[in-house]
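1st attempt posting a full record on here, be nice pls
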Amino acid sequence: MTILLVAALIAGACTWVVYRLVSVRISASKPVSTTQVVAAAKDIPLGAVLTTADLTTMTVAGTPPKGAILKQEDAVGRGVITQISQGEPILDSQLAGLGSGGGLAPTIPQGMRACAVRVDEVVGVAGFVIPGMRVDVLVSGNPPGEGASQGVVTETILQNIQVLSAGTDIQRDAEGKPQQVQVVNLLVTPDQAQLLSLASNSLKIQLVLRNPLDTQVTKVPATAMSNLFGSQAPPATHERAARGPAKPAAKPYSIVVMNGNKTTDEKFASPEGQH
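the predicted structure (as tokens):
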């Protein structure tokens, strides 16, 4: 019985080893499915319209990426709504609809607007405002009406706004000479576009970079020039509160003066604290 048991164990071990070796050879000889997909032949910028010179094909082993384009004719003539790197498979979600054209328009979602804001090089954070960044919009100027006494006031009017594009535009100054102006296109709602248009007429606009992961919108009070130097006078109500309640007016007092048979009544103002 012992000999039979040992023989059965040895036979089972040999069977398992043979099975594993045969399985490895079968899986190695099994062909892997491949798919030809359309890829970028070079770096394609945002807003470009694809041509056959921009496209190539590449072989993808296994399952192709979701939304991959299999035929070049399905991509030619469509605008690019996100930057595509050389050798990267082109996905349908990276392209605008057929007939939408190129440029900035296809990148604007439904219900949103692209508003151009003119900024100088310093306000443009020395070129670090690039598509996809998130910024806050600050305006500075002299408020109308009673607020004019505060001097220049800076206020945050928009927060967590996406930058669609950034570049330069050629405009003419007051003398008619051409000059380069930094232009940044922001993705805003129609109401926000009206605020930016109103602010760009007479106020200075500044963009402030923020972390793209920081999406919290906080309430930021406006800051006046007088606050920087501590010269802003407190409201009159605060002064009265600090002094305490107003003291009642002093009551006058009278003195009867008798000069011979003549009597007169003289009135005098009472000194504070006396009667």
